Inverse folding.
């Protein structure tokens, strides 16, 4: 133990100690400067604003500033394909050169969805379902049916569209709805030029009745007289079953 304390007092120990301290200091400085060089200390750059640019323009901007990029895509109805809508990191964030930026763009191809069942749903329900599936409502056509504003058929491109058929998201479909009148109303036939017997037959086929019959002028042969006017006319709106139709006849 005494020899150890004696050695610590010698000149040789002091020189070795100083050399060791100098070596450790040099090694530490080398490590620090090496790490700064490797991580490009104080060489950070600001992330550019990319949202709102088309992807081709965004890529040119990134490559010009030495950034890498990674793409993800989503589909949005009525959005311009190829548009950058999200970026990470945010604009003006300080990052190292060659940093990878993550971009989200609008895809150019609409994904397909299985068309939902709309037949026998109300118009309000059908419209809500279309919105939830990312589909658009086009024209609405009404046909006679006792159920008012109830979907009776669906058209896509002029053809019937059945539930389960794949259609591109964002597609426009047309609905055929019931008008609520159904078979209780019918269209009045055109009776012009018909004889009284022919009128009776036409009205019976249309579920209508014969009203008043007026002869215009001198009628010498009632069997050959033909209709020159009627009320209601075939151009009027539909009428209820059993509605009487009034006619006026003349000899041809």
């Amino acid at each position: 133990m005494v020899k150890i304390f004696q050695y610590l007092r010698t000149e040789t120990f002091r020189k070795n100690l100083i050399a060791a301290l100098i070596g450790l200091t040099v090694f530490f400085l080398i490590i620090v400067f090496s790490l700064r060089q490797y991580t490009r200390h104080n060489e950070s750059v600001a992330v550019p604003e990319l949202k709102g640019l088309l992807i081709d323009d965004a890529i040119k901007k990134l490559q010009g500033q030495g950034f890498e990029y990674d793409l993800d895509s989503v589909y949005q109805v009525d959005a311009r394909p190829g548009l950058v809508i999200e970026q990470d990191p945010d604009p003006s964030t300080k990052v190292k050169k060659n940093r990878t930026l993550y971009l989200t763009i609008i895809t150019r191809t609409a994904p397909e969805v299985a068309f939902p069942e709309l037949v026998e749903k109300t118009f309000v329900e059908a419209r809500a379902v279309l919105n939830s599936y990312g589909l658009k409502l086009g024209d609405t056509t009404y046909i006679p049916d006792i159920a008012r504003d109830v979907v009776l058929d669906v058209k896509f491109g002029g053809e019937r569209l059945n539930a389960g058929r794949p259609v591109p998201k964002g597609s426009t479909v047309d609905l055929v709805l019931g008008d609520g009148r159904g078979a209780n109303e019918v269209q009045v036939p055109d009776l012009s030029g018909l004889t009284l017997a022919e009128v009776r037959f036409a009205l019976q086929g249309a579920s209508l009745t014969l009203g008043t019959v007026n002869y215009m002028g001198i009628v010498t042969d009632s069997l050959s007289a033909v209709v020159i006017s009627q009320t209601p006319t075939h151009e009027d709106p539909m009428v209820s079953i059993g509605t009487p139709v009034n006619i006026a006849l003349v000899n041809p």
Observations:
- The mean pLDDT is 85.
- Residues 8 and 14 are 8 Å apart (CA to CA).
